[in-house]
Amino acid sequence: MATLVCAIGVLGLFYLDRDKSVQTSKALWIPVIWLWINGSRPVSMWLGMTPASNSASNLLQGSPIDRAILASLMALGLIALIPRRGRITHLLKESWPILLYFCFCLVSVLWSDFPRVAFRRWTKGIGDLVMVLIVVTDTRPNAALERLISRVGFLFMPASVLLIKYYRDLGTYHARSYAGNCGVSTDKNILGVTVFVLSVGAFWLVLRLLRDSSQPNRARHFLAQGTLLAFGVSLLVMAHSATSAACFVLGAGLMLAAGWSVIGRRPAAVHALVFAVLLTGILTLFLGGYPHVVHAMGRQTNLHGRTKIWHTLIPLATNPLVGAGYESFWLGPRLETMWIAFPGDYLTEAHNGYLETYLNLGWVGVVLIALILIHGYRHAVCTFRTDPTYGSLLLAYVLTAAVYSITEAGFRMLDPVWIFLLLAVVAASDASGLGGEAQGDQISGSPVKFDVALLTGGQDRPYAFGVATAMAAQGVCMEIIGNDLVDSPEFHTTPKLKFLNLGGIQQSEASFPTKLLQLCSYYARLIRYVTFAKPKLLHILWNNKFESFDRTLLMLYYKLSGKKVALTAHNVNGDKRDSSDSPVKHLTLKIQYRLVDHIFVHTDEMKSELREDFGVRAQAITVIPFGINNAARHTDLTPAEAKRRLSIGDDERTILFFGRIVPYKGLEYLLSAFQELLAKDPTYRLIIAGEPMKGCEKYCKQIRQTANGTDIRDRIVGKFEFVPDEHTELYFKAADALVLPYKSVSQSGVLFLAYRFGTPVIAADVGSFRQDIIAGRTGFLHRRGDPADLARVIEVYFGSDLYKGLDQRRQEIKNLMQARHSWDLVGKLTRDVYEGLLQK
Question: Which residues contact 210 (CB under 8 A, 6 or more apart)?
């Protein structure tokens, strides 16, 4: 009767949890059966074909029936994965620590005492990875994970309760003087770990149902998953497996904490939460609380003899560097030594995953396991940014696997905690995998999803910010490569954006050897990133420090890596503008322009220059507006208050020069014009805010000498240093006009920074200024290289209606330029190019 009730109950759970609206692959039953078998007992044991006594020879030979069944499942899994091979290649690249680990495991077979046995076990280990890939590469991976947990749990847990309660000879076991509940498994530890990983998943499913009231058929799904969770908690109590119970509490607590408003989608908060858990454990250990905690968990302070086992095992390690070979330590003489030392226990594991790895694979193996855990943790936290509920599940599996393996061998083949660790790491490594589906990120009007890497060159944060946020709004997943100078809080909170600080912290006062080492390290990390990067399209905003290398060898490597490359040419030939061009520099620039797949420019003149001087095809060039700076802080600071902060009077006519001080910007012309203006009207004030550029020391010295002249010194506010973004607003709001007396330029970001604050611009008639400045409405133009004409135009401006109605005109300038240079327009044009490149 109990069996009949159990069977009806199991069918009822499957019926309650049905969902015909979501279709998953039939191949999902393969990992379900794999977990049923490895979480319970070998098929040979269910059939009564297991040898009656334990012996070393039985471990060597294994069971032909079990081997055949697992091999059949693995073969079916491989067949199911054949149509998904492209996706698998991508996933394995993303999960490179796992790939590296299994490759080393295969190589370790060579020095194993029992190479045939080690190789057979390695193939079983690959079977775990095959099952994981079946789940993650499903067309609906999120639903596949849900069904994997449910299908395994709906049968495993009720059947275990049935055997423990009504079939005691099957549901319990005896080990020396100890009797325990094992359910459908072979001992309490196997039962505990299987229940723990399934219960963590069930807890996740229950949380999702509680937090999302819009899910269809929510009530019956909640009843099914709630029942599964109740079974799990009951079995953890019955199993008396303290490690598994503690790990379930840790995983469930982590997922609950992830839902706190203080955590939100902030990775820093997740790091703080994990650190708090680790710190609590460390303080408990060193402040004398360890015995109380261990006894409260039902353990002895020696962890039921585990510490004695560990002390005995360590001297038996054959090779500290590379170990005894994959799954080879517990064979032959070493096994017999341990059985003699611990009679009746028939030990086949170290009861510590890290020690177990050390014995089989040495320190190399331990380092590889650490890499897998770190990789999984980092990517789980990244997933947490966009989907906290799903990211917390992956984080729970990674952290609980690390904790579980302190007292159990959790990193072994066929172990449920190892399988779910692999699943978490692979899924977290894939930004468009399970987490992507869980988010449901469907951008209206943007059916095609793809990933792009934005290479910033570690500079120009405002433009990188504008591009990244604009593309995220267009549904493009973007990985931003830069350093701390480019980093922005929005890169860590905006869905679809991921910031990778490959350049590290930039220290201007560091020594030359330190800077060189940091730069070389950055290039190494960049090359490695490109090798394994998920994005197939690289968008270069600026080259790095070694421009000739970037233009040639690095560009060639990008292409050989199979990447599509787009380039934003802010200046078609910056060296020519700076009067530092040479045949070699021109050649390297031409090579880059020929190697890239597409080039973005900001004006038709720049497009013509690319075609005429570098022979670039017209079809490979797209003209996009220069977006209005939306990165600089814009508060309610008024122009009058800004002037007061700089000790400038309300009635003083204030002009601004802003940006790096370099010869091509013609600051000397402005100083000459300013002297001429002061001779007529002493109410003029000049603000110079910018950092002298390295390599231009002689020019900057001349500028300082002129600015410090007795006739104009008191009328100049000089800030000859880098101006951080948070201070930019002060200078532009204090200014009545920005002056750009440039000698030569294609376009200028400073112009659009001025427009962000509604500041009129007086500029030389060069580059794109004639198209970007509307005379009388947003500013005025003067003849290039003519200080007298510049002085005349400044006087014209201060006598114009634009200046007289400046308080109202500021908003008009902002609205006008926002319409012509919006990032929304830039994003749409750029996305169209991305799609075209990736569809080729």
Answer: 222
pTM (two decimals): 0.55
β-pair partners for 782: 764
Beta 178-181 vs 172-175: how paired, if at all?
A: antiparallel
d(CA 596, CA 466): 22
d(CA 760, CA 790): 15
Structure tokens at 56: 């070393």
Rounded distance between C-alpha atoms, residue 831 and residue 590, angstroms: 25
Calpha distance 201→149 (Å, rounded)? 6
Confirm if 761 and 774 have CB atoms less than 8 A apart: no
CA distance 758 to 831: 29
Contact 674, 641 (CB under 8 A): no
pLDDT band at 87 (very low <50, low <70, confident <90, very high): confident
Could you tell me how far CA 579 lies from the centroid of its own chain?
41
Distance CA 207, CA 389 (A): 8
- Which sign does the torsion angle of CA 435, 440, 442, 448 carry? positive
- Positive or negative CA dihedral for 374, 38, 33, 147? negative
Q: Tell me the one-letter amino acid at 436.
A: G
Exposure of 695 by Cβ count < 10 A (0-12 exposed, 13-18 middle, 19+ buried)? exposed
| Residue 269 pLDDT grade (very low, low, confident, very high; cuts 50, 70, 90) | low
SS3 per-residue string spanning 531-579: HHCCCCEEEECCCCCCHHHHHHHHHHHHHHCCCEEEEECCCCCHHHHCC
HSE, CB side, 13 Å, CA atoms: give it for residue 399: 28
Helix (H) or strand (E) holding 100: helix 96-108
Q: What is the pLDDT of residues 449-502, one digit of tens each?
A: 578 999 999 988 899 999 999 999 998 999 999 998 899 989 998 889 999 999
Q: What is the CA radius of gyration of the chain?
A: 34
Burial annotation 337-371 (CB, 10 A radius, 16+ → b, else e): ebbeeeeeebbebbbbbbbbbbbbbbebbbebbee
| Contacts of residue 148, Cβ cutoff 8 Å, sequence gap at least 6 | 28, 31, 32, 35, 135
DSSP state of 82: G
CA 829-832-835 angle, 5° bins: 150
